[in-house]
Amino acid sequence: MGGQQEEEHSAVRLFREYLRIRTVHPQPDYDCAIEFLEKLGVELALSCKKVEVSPSRVILILTWEGTDPKLKSILLNSHTDVVPVFEEHWKHDPFAALKDEQGNIYGRGSQDMKCVTIQYIEAIRRLKSEGKRFPRTIHLLIVPDEEIGGQNGMVKFIEREEFGALNVGFGLDEGLANPGDAFTVFYGERNVWWVTVRCPGSPGHGSRFIENNAAEKVRRVINSFLDFREKEKKRLNLSECLTLGDVTTVNLTFLQGGVAFNVVPEELTASFDIRIPPTVDLKAFEEQIKTWCQEAGDGVVYEFHQKNMDQALTSIDKSDPWWSAFSSTCQQMDMTLQCEIFPAATDSRFIRAIGYPAIGFSPMNRTPILLHDHNEYLNERIFLTGINIYTSLIPALASVSPLEGEA
Ligand code: ZN
């Protein structure tokens, strides 16, 4: 019998190699990741292009030209960076890519989303080795900084002419694992609002009953926001057809103010992280916030640190040619799809916001959702099945017949 090393699939070996590159915030080793992926691109005879969108922030584009390059292209997006780890909570070194006896590969980024990058590459390797070609051009887009908001990654890139030159028709980006047999597919995302509410009040000595004080106001503000939170939580728990992406979540994330134990402060602030589904009337919701502030007392105001207003959804209607190609291919593979609104945020929101359809999909079923969590892992069989899935999906998408207005 051969050792584990000899039996390992070359794609798994590559995946594990990629996991060992420390692209972890706050100081991700992007150079090493780009070098690693570019080498793979060259190996597959893909054309490689690098665009530095911000200092030390490089976007790598690996392109497989279609037989009809005038047609709109397929964008396969993935990010290289991963979130930090609390090493003391991990069973194994998060950057060693250890594989246990069950074939579970432990590593930061194993689900989010180094698996997907390697799966795209391996699917293309397979298709190329079979001598396949498709009408539409396929671009593998590899971006930095997704985990810190994409401001120096995808956001900068979509403003550049190099992005326009990709002539994108349809995009795939990351999704989430599904613990059951089904695969989750995301066709929209919630909007992120980060709000700080400032509550001014009369300062004074801590031994007295000061009128018009900041604490009473901030208490009312917190009550309004958290009462609403409770309502949304109930709504989610009472309905079987709702997922996290369908309700608004509110969390109090900062509470600031005060100078001394015996001084009533002249201002207290409360900050909230709010995630709003695309079905919510954003104007009405902001009115609600305004009302809560007015009701809290004199001078209470709010300000935004982040306020996303895009409510674009990608069509999951059978009549949509992209969705039809995607979903019918999955059906042929006997995959059950669960279509949801992404509860957090990914780079695909920027792609949707400028009018391109994009689906969030990471082919991981029978897998606990461990992104950003301790002991993030992916089983090698699930990983390898994901390559099979892309090996069918990519040809289907890259062969979608010319749409109206296309050459
Ligand atoms: Zn991610």
Number of helices: 11
The percentage helix is 25-40%
**Distance separating the two termini:** 56 Å
- Number of E-type strands: 16
CATH topology of the largest domain: Aminopeptidase
Q: Any idea of the CATH class of the largest domain? A: Alpha Beta
> What shape does the CA trace take?
globular
Order of helices and strands: HHHEEEEHEHHEEEEHEEEHEHEHEEH
Number of domains: 2
* Strand arrangement in the largest pleated sheet: 1-2-5-3-6-15
- The stretches of 5 or more residues where confidence is low (pLDDT under 50) are none
How is this structure best described in words?
- The protein is of the alpha/beta class and 407 residues long.
- It folds into two domains: 5-175 and 346-398, Aminopeptidase (3-Layer(aba) Sandwich), CATH 3.40.630.10; 191-307, 2-Layer Sandwich (Alpha-Beta Plaits).
- The protein is built from eleven helices and 16 strands.
- It has helices at residues 4-7, 10-19, 30-43, 114-129, 154-158, 161-164, 214-238, 282-296, 321-332, 348-353, 380-398; strands at 47-54, 57-64, 73-79, 104-106, 138-143, 168-173, 183-189, 191-200, 204-205, 249-257, 263-264, 267-276, 301-307, 337-342, 358-360, 377-379.
- It has a six-stranded mixed sheet.
- Strand 1 and strand 2 (57-64) form a beta hairpin.
- Helix 2 (10-19) packs antiparallel against helix 4 (114-129), helix 7 (214-238) packs antiparallel against helix 8 and helix 9 (321-332) crosses helix 11 (380-398).
- The longest helix is centred in the middle third of the chain and has 25 residues, at 214-238.
- The radius of gyration is 24 Å and the shape is globular.
- The N and C termini lie far apart (56 Å).
- The structure holds zinc ion (ZN).
- Zinc ion binds at residues 79, 112-113, 146, 174, 346.
